[in-house]
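Lecture 7 notes: from sequence to structure.

We start with a single chain of 196 residues. Read the sequence below before looking at the structure.
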Amino acid sequence: METKGKTNSDTVQEKTYPDKSVFYSFDKAQAVYKEMSGRKILLTDAILLLLYAQPDNPIFGAVSMMKQIFLATHEIFDSDGVQDGRFVPHYYGWYSFLVANDLQNLEFLGFIIRKGKRNTKLEQFQISEKGKQYIKDLFKSLPQDLQTTLKEKRKGWDQLGYRGMLRYMYTKYPESIEKSKLKETYKPIKWGRSKG
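Now the structure, written as C-alpha cells:
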C-alpha cells in the first residue's frame, strides 16, 4: 500500500490499495473534486438511467444486464463522463465487480426490483417506483438526443436477447472473449479466400 502527501498533522492525504483504488482524506477529496471538469455520472445512476429508458420492460438475465451497462457506459455516455466500471474479461465477456455490487446495493435500497432465479436467463431487473422518482430529474437533464439514443439502444439490446447480445459483444469487443467459457461457441468468423 502506497501513501502520499502527509500534512503537518501527519494525516494521510491519499492511500492506494492493491486493486488500484485510491482513497483520499476529506481535504484531498475536495481538491480533486474541484479539479474535475464536467459532471461525471455515477455507475449507480448509469444503471438506473438504463432501466428508466424502458421503465416497463425488465432486462432479462444478469449477463444481458452486465453487457447493457457496459455498452451504455462505453457507447452512449462518453466513457470520460461516467464513473469507470473497471470491466474485465470474464466467463461471459466484460464483467464489473463494481457493477455487480452496485446492483445488490440498488436492490437493497429499493431502487431496482430483481425477480426470478438468480444468475439465469430468467432473472429480471426492473426499476422500482422509488428508483423512477430518484432518477427522473437526471434523465430529463440529459440532452434530448441522448435521451432518445438511450431509449432506442435499450429497446434494441432487449430485442437481441441473450445470444444476440453475446454475439454482438464478442464481435465488437473481441478482447472480451479471452476468458470466456463460450469461446468455441462464439468464435469469430474469418472471411476471405482459402489458399488452394
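The longest strand covers residues 2-6. Keep this in mind for problem set 3.
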